[in-house]
Amino acid sequence: MSAQRRPATKRVVAVEEPRPQRPTRQKATSDAQKKAPSPEKARGRPATQPSGGIATRTEGIRRVYRDTFAELKKINWPDQETTRNLTIVVIGISVVLGILLGGIDYILFQVFEALP
User: What SS3 class is residue 95?
Assistant: First the structure.
């Protein structure tokens, strides 16, 4: 008798259909950045400083002063009671941590002194 052969099995491979690509956040951000004007153009100032006299040399310093003063106006300063309460909390936490760390230091010092 002849040897019987097993019938060949068919291999089934699942193929996924390609999904449409959505724009990534990085791409959307870069597109938005391309559309947004530069800070210099938004202020109406040239991107580069022209070479010239003392006025152009000090423009950078004056700009820093103006920007700093504008940012200081935006600060919401706490009232006197809030400042006092938060200062007391900081001092209290500092004292407690100082005592705790000092105690741990003293205990470890005594342990290491007792070792032969």
Answer: helix
Q: Return d(Cα 16, Cα 104) in angstroms, integer.
A: 63
The angle formed by the CA atoms of residues 39, 43 and 64, to the nearest 5 degrees, is: 80
Q: Where are the domains of the chain?
A: 50-114
Residue 19 token pair: 């999904």
Residue 65 has which token pair? 């002063």
pLDDT in tens, 23-52: 665 555 555 555 655 555 555 555 555 555
Residue 49 near residue 56, CB atoms below 8 Å: yes
Q: Which residue has the tokens 């956040």?
A: 25
Cα gap 31→18, rounded to integer Å: 25
Q: Which two tokens stand for residue 72?
A: 């200081």
